[in-house]
């Protein structure tokens, strides 16, 4: 198996410009759930850059539960995201849902994100496996660790072994939180796989006030980083406002994490 733990060696993913995920590095990826407009994404990038964040997230193609909800700005959103990132020398991560969009998205993203709902979209996995840019593979919300690793295997078999896993919470009977953040997945993945794993406490909890405590916990269990939703004004966000941190909160998170771990 390509993503298994071979000779105990761990994979370090090179994002370029000396940004690496895995190994001794701890990465913080942050940005809005969705790119909404130029001002929103520029303000967010500017602020995150000041905090030392090097990778900007932002959804352009949004897999919304309801077809009537905001679906994202598509390629217009990707361009806004890329421009904002470029101004501050940041890298871009964004979700692609349709294999037909991979080619056109290539110039705008540094990391392709495969969302939870597409973790077992095997044709998408195979196409992304042919690309020479890193992939963030989120855990399916009802996927076992084995199924998740097999999904990564689909990507790796096509040639792309630069895969970062992301625990983003699973469905359980508990509905106080949006999902149940399964932090046991982190040491399990470390045991079974050579791939780095980061944690998404935003989707993992669905609640802003739980994001900082679960980020601390992610560090404690040995995660390689975090991906955090941030919005200049969460109450006005077009998606996932309840779980998005404002600028004061992300600053607090980064300061707290910095005090226990060296971040990039
Ligand atoms: C996201 O990170 O934008 C997202 C939609 O997350 P998930 O696929 O984990 O639901
Ligand atoms: Mn979101």
From TrEMBL:
Please indicate if the UniProt record lists Transferase as a keyword.
Answer: yes
Protein known as: 2-keto-3-deoxy-D-arabino-heptulosonate-7-phosphate synthase I beta
Q: Does the keyword Metal-binding apply?
A: no
- Superkingdom of source: Bacteria
Q: Which residues form the DAHP synthetase I/KDSA domain?
A: 13-256
Coiled-coil region list: none
Top EC category: transferase
The protein's UniProt keywords, in alphabetical order, are: Transferase
Q: Where do transmembrane segments lie in this chain?
A: none
Q: Which InterPro entries match?
A: Aldolase_TIM, Class-I_DAHP_synthase, DAHP1/KDSA, DAHP_syn_2
**Cross-referenced Pfam families:** DAHP_synth_1 (PF00793)
Cite a single GO BP annotation.
Answer: aromatic amino acid family biosynthetic process
Which E.C. number(s) belong to this protein? 2.5.1.54
Q: Name one GO molecular function term.
A: aldehyde-lyase activity
* Species annotation: Caldisalinibacter kiritimatiensis
């Amino acid at each position: 198996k390509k993503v298994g733990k071979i000779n105990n060696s761990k994979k370090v993913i090179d994002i370029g410009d000396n940004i690496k995920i895995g190994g001794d590095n701890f990465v913080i990826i942050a940005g809005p759930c969705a790119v909404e407009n130029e001002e929103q994404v520029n303000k967010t990038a500017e602020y995150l850059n000041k905090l030392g964040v090097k990778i900007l997230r932002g959804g352009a193609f949004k897999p919304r539960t309801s077809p009537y909800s905001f679906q994202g700005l598509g390629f217009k959103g990707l361009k806004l995201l890329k421009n904002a990132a470029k101004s501050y020398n940041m890298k871009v991560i964004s979700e692609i849902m349709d294999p037909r969009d991979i080619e056109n998205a290539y110039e705008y993203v540094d990391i392709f994100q495969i969302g939870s709902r597409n973790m077992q979209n095997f044709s998408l996995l195979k196409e992304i496996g042919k690309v020479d840019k890193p992939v963030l593979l989120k855990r399916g919300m009802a996927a076992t660790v084995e199924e998740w690793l097999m999904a990564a295997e689909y990507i790796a078999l096509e040639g792309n072994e630069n895969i970062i896993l992301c625990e983003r919470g699973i469905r359980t009977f508990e509905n106080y939180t949006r999902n149940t953040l399964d932090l046991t997945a982190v040491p399990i993945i470390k045991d079974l796989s050579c791939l780095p794993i980061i944690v998404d406490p935003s989707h993992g909890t669905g609640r802003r006030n739980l994001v900082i405590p679960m980020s601390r916990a992610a560090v404690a269990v040995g995660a390689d980083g975090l991906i955090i939703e941030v919005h200049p004004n969460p109450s006005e966000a077009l998606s996932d406002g309840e779980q998005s941190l404002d600028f004061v909160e992300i600053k607090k998170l980064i300061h707290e994490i910095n005090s226990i771990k060296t971040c990039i």
